[in-house]
Amino acid sequence: MITERIRRNVPLKEYTTFKIGGLAKYFLEAKNKEELMAGIQWAKQQGLPFFILGGGSNLLISDEGFDGLVLRISSDGFQFDGERLKVEAGANLSLVVNECLKKRLSGLEWASGIPKITVGGAVYGNAGAFGVTCADMIESVELLDTDTMTIKTISFEECQFDYKESIFKKNKNLIILSVVFRLEAKAAEEIEKEIKRALFYRREHHSSEPSAGSVFKNPFQIPAGELIENCGLKGKRIGNAQISLKHANFIVNLGEAKAQDVKNLIDLAKKEVQNKFNILLEEEVQYLGF
Ligand SMILES: Cc1cc2nc3c(=O)[nH]c(=O)nc-3n(C[C@H](O)[C@H](O)[C@H](O)COP(=O)(O)OP(=O)(O)OC[C@H]3O[C@@H](n4cnc5c(N)ncnc54)[C@H](O)[C@@H]3O)c2cc1C
Hints:
By secondary structure, the chain is of the alpha+beta class. It is 27% helix and 27% strand. It has helices spanning 33-46, 93-102, 119-124, 167-170, 188-205, 224-230, 259-277, and strands at residues 7-11, 23-30, 50-53, 59-61, 66-73, 78-81, 84-88, 105-106, 128-129, 132-133, 138-145, 150-155, 174-182, 184-185, 237-238, 241-243, 251-253, 286-288. A hairpin with a 2-residue loop joins strand 6 (78-81) and strand 7 (84-88).
């Protein structure tokens, strides 16, 4: 019975890299697609909204939490077939890179060192770094359409990838179940070099305090961090949330920060950048419960 696995009043801050967020009224850790579908059916029967959670590394969850069912996808199986890798949505992409290294397969090294990033979350927002995006390696995606409760596989073209965009972001009824990546055979030394480069870059440039990575998309490829810094906002603090001193497109939690403090900093950065540069920043971070 799926109802026995559904927990009540679960603190969501434990499930986000920001370490911020109120309670989920209901919470289910879905270990496979059967559990995921059963959870969604249950939420529909109860007339409750539901939300899909990956690693929580790009999420700002409100202090009030979520008055519905949060489904955390934790299915993380993977299978290599030549240069193809089929991997389930809940797999940690940063760890998948190590499995690829063992097989001498290249393409996902950019994800090394990103905490908690799951395959599902990465595909949803077409994550990437160093000029490479998730979309570059994707052959197909298996999805669940929650409107019809049917499972199907769509091609790379049908995913409608763009900068930080995909069909999944535009259609919340489509849930990523698994992905087929097409990788490239390379020497282990070359792959290791790319992994080290990604890890070194993140150590040097990213904040060590809890965050959700980049808050804003880069408009017209001008780094949002540069715009925010030029408004004099680096280090700006509201409550215990701060625009990172290391990277102005990161907001960090200095300890028990409120979601509202982060939201106020986001609104402030948008307003100042709009006033000074006439550019409207758009959030990369996703909201829940606002
Ligand atoms: C220190 C740090 C560094 C980062 N560096 C980078 C970087 O270099 N490049 C980059 O692109 N990002 C970066 N990020 C941001 C983040 O890791 C990515 O956006 C990541 O893809 C989010 O994945 P997630 O599993 O954590 O998704 P979550 O944060 O859990 O969810 C994000 C969105 O995806 C949706 N979602 C999750 N899984 C599914 C699914 N299976 N089906 C449908 N929708 C789903 C959720 O509903 C939500 O709307 C960084 C974050 C941190 C904390």
